[in-house]
Design goal:
With 255 residues, the protein is α/β, with parallel strands linked by helices. It contains 10 helices and 10 strands. The protein has helices at residues 43-50, 75-84, 92-95, 102-113, 119-125, 142-154, 172-189, 200-206, 224-229, 234-241, and strands spanning 3-14, 17-28, 32-36, 58-63, 66-67, 85-88, 160-164, 192-197, 209-214, 217-223. The chain has a 6-stranded mixed β-sheet with strand order 6-7-8-3-9-10, sandwiched between helices. A 4-stranded antiparallel β-sheet has the order 2-1-4-5, with helices on one face. The radius of gyration is 19 Å and the shape is globular. The chain binds adenosine-5'-triphosphate. The site of adenosine-5'-triphosphate has 11 residues, from helix 1. InterPro entries: AAA+_ATPase (IPR003593), ABC_transp_ATP-bind (IPR050319), ABC_transporter-like_ATP-bd (IPR003439), ABC_transporter-like_CS (IPR017871), P-loop_NTPase (IPR027417). Belongs to the ABC transporter superfamily. Keywords: ATP-binding, Nucleotide-binding, Transport.
């Protein structure tokens, strides 16, 4: 299986504060790597560097064999890079243009990437009724906006997607629907996912590989079943101990 995203020895400093220390991992075609850790661990900073929104202080990011540390030379380069890698952000309501109707937002991305999609087929792919085609973001729920953000990412036919806390704001039943949808899409399209989350139950449902991050450093990484079922680092054990497993029930104490 080919490596789609390769992150090597990444470092990010803000002034004298080093928030990412020597981080390396890969995301393979058709697979999901989860980047987990508590708030402030540096997950979004790494996602920002991978998607080109944040500059690295040191290290290298390669996407589809191309060194992303070098700035794109032309708008054509930028378009090609966007077609390889799309971001699904945590808060789609602020990410989507508040005045743009769903079909127009999707048509714009389709035109930009000259892809073969139509707004209707993308809406069908994410399970969004076509009656929302003329809706603007404020007329939709968080889950519906999240589907639009995913549909828009799919409009570029990306090789990989960075999903930054993409389901964290959704209630559990909508979250399960969106996760199922993402898994189905991955089976059909072999898109590679870098899944950024603090939620280990989401990791359990989605990840093939897991990278556990603490204060900007990788404390443990490996195949999901190994990291989740036989964690080696004390920090991973602590994270797991604070997350209920499926089927977990609180112990009732009797007086
Ligand atoms: N522009 C910035 N300037 C200074 N410090 C920053 C900046 N952006 C992020 N940081 C700091 O970098 C550290 C990592 O932040 P980051 O948002 O990457 O963590 P995270 O793991 O994604 O956390 P969360 O889940 O809360 O978003 C934090 O200490 C944060 O305060």
């Amino acid at each position: 299986m080919a490596d789609v995203i390769v992150v090597e020895n990444l470092v990010k400093r803000y002034g004298t504060l080093e928030v990412v220390h020597d981080v390396s991992f890969t995301v393979r075609t058709g697979r999901t790597t989860a980047l987990v850790g508590e708030s402030g661990a540096g997950k979004s900073t790494i996602g920002g560097i991978v998607t080109g929104l944040v500059d690295a202080t040191a290290g290298k990011v390669t996407v589809c064999g191309e060194d992303r540390s070098k700035a794109a030379r032309s708008s054509r380069d930028r378009r090609r890079r966007a077609a390889q890698l799309q971001l699904v952000p945590q808060d789609p309501i602020t990410f989507l243009d508040p005045r743009q109707r769903v079909s127009a937002a999707l048509a714009e991305t389709i035109a930009l990437h000259k892809s073969d999609h139509t707004p209707a087929d993308l809406m069908a792919a994410v399970g969004l009724s076509t009656r929302y085609a003329s809706a603007v973001p404020r007329e939709m729920s968080g889950g519906q906006c999240q589907r639009v953000a995913i549909a828009r990412a799919l409009a570029a036919d990306p090789v990989a997607m960075v999903l930054d806390e993409a389901v964290s704001a959704l209630d559990v039943s909508v979250q399960a629907q969106v996760l199922n949808l993402l898994r189905d899409l991955q089976t059909r399209t072999s898109t590679a996912y870098l899944f950024i989350t603090h939620d280990l139950s989401v990791v359990r449902q989605m990840a093939d590989d897991v990278v556990v991050l603490r204060r900007g450093q990788v404390v443990e990484d490996g195949p999901a079943e190994q990291v989740l079922d036989d964690p080696q680092a004390d920090y991973t054990k602590l994270l797991l101990a604070s997350t209920p497993r499926p089927g977990w029930k609180p112990v009732r104490r009797t007086a």
